[in-house]
């Protein structure tokens, strides 16, 4: 059943007939609102892209008075549950009572030496946040998000990379009655909307913070004046057996976002993967290009750490923002049952910390959200756009 609040509500439905399932999910979400909907978001998991398309068209038709966006996914979240790899639809409806809602669709054009994104909305003085849903196979999400500040300023962008059970070619994006098979779609929220972001990267630091003293592209050659690989080996040798297993299963590196902070602890880093080593050069390859002078710290991730991190960040946000009314949740498809043994983990954590509010989302192939005021694409992250009745609009939490 839908979770009823004054301004936000969600609906979840599971069933092989995706059109009927979409109807049920959207109907439940709309029924939970105490006013007319301004925005409806929906997420569809199904094997046949054509059936996903029909379900999306039906979902959009059910809220003609609202702005509507949606996408395909490999799993959906709603009613404090996660559903993975099964025919299912989740829906979320919001009644902002005066806030502006402007949808958009983005395409890319190839020039001689680069891609150009077209369809960007114009910034307005009252803009609070943007929701973005993108096809990872056709849209340069990483580059777009990393350079979004050049065009959109400090506008927070929260969302996820869509997918389909058939992979490339099966992604479907929906916006205001239209279906897109590539690019990105989204919505800009403006006006008196109290909105914030919570981005839980779920990592724990190991070893000391170190300054990058020599690097080439994404290859770390020296850390704190010593060969990077030697530094990493020293750190790993000092770990207990459990943490060594975590290193072996997927080492991460955290890039400090505030170089002026006196201490750098969990939550102070942008997490990127360690993708290999070069024994001949005694170097470590990472999933980003790091400049000389940046401070980094190696990290590990496990279910316990990810659980603690999400609960801690949600608690901090409640302390800062006050009563929470609704949220959109974009959870990595590597979390859920793969990490926690249950697809429900992130949805239940949000219910535990924020209460029985309207929350829906999907399992994404990459998550978007701001860290220390800058937008990034993440992996293995739970990224939330949280709506509250608390302090000034636009207040953000990393």
From TrEMBL:
Can you tell which superkingdom this protein's organism belongs to? Bacteria
Q: Which UniProt keywords apply?
A: Cell membrane, Membrane, Transmembrane, Transmembrane helix
| Subcellular location, record wording | Cell membrane
Annotated FIST domain residues: 36-227
Q: Where do the FIST C-domain domain residues begin and end?
A: 228-371
Pfam families documented for this protein: FIST, FIST_C
Q: How does it sit in the membrane?
A: Multi-pass membrane protein
The record, for SMART domains, names: FIST, FIST_C
Matching entries from PANTHER family are given as: F-BOX ONLY PROTEIN 22
Q: What is this protein called?
A: FIST N-terminal domain-containing protein
Q: Which organism is it from?
A: Sphaerimonospora cavernae
């Amino acid at each position: 059943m839908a979770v009823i609040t004054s301004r936000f509500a969600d609906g979840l439905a599971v069933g092989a007939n995706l059109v009927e399932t979409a109807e049920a999910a959207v109907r439940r979400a709309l029924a939970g609102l105490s006013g007319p909907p301004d925005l409806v978001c929906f997420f569809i998991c199904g094997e046949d892209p054509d059936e996903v398309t029909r379900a999306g068209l039906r979902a959009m038709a059910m809220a003609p008075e609202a702005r509507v966006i949606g996408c395909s996914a490999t799993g959906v979240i709603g009613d404090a549950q996660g559903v993975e790899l099964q025919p299912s639809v989740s829906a979320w409806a919001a009644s902002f009572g005066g806030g502006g809602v402007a949808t958009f669709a983005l395409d890319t054009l190839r020039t001689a030496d680069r891609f150009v994104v077209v369809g960007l909305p114009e910034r307005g003085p009252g803009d609070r946040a943007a929701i973005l849903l993108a096809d990872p196979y056709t849209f340069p999400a990483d580059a777009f998000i990393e350079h979004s500040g050049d065009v959109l300023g400090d506008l927070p962008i929260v969302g996820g990379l869509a997918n389909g059970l058939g992979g490339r070619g099966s992604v479907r994006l929906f916006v205001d009655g239209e279906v897109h098979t590539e690019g990105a779609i989204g919505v800009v929220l403006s006006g008196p909307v109290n909105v914030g972001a919570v981005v839980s990267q779920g990592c724990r630091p190991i070893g000391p913070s170190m300054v990058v003293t020599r690097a080439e592209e994404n290859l770390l050659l020296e850390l704190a004046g010593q060969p990077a690989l030697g530094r990493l080996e020293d750190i790993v040798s000092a770990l207990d057996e459990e943490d060594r297993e975590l290193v072996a299963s997927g080492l991460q590196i955290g890039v400090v976002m505030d170089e002026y902070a006196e201490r750098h602890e969990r939550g102070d880093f942008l997490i990127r993967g360690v993708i290999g080593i070069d024994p001949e050069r005694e170097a470590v390859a990472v999933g980003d290009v790091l400049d000389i002078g940046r401070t980094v710290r190696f990290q590990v991730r496990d279910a316990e750490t990810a659980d603690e991190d999400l609960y801690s960040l949600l608690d901090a946000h409640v302390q800062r923002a006050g009563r929470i009314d609704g949220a959109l949740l974009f959870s990595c498809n590597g979390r859920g049952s793969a990490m926690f043994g249950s697809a429900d983990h992130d949805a239940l954590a949000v219910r535990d910390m924020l209460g029985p509010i309207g929350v829906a989302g999907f399992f994404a192939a990459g998550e978007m959200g701001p860290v220390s005021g800058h937008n990034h694409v993440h992996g293995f992250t739970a990224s939330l756009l949280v709506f509250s009745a608390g302090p000034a609009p636009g207040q953000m939490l990393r």
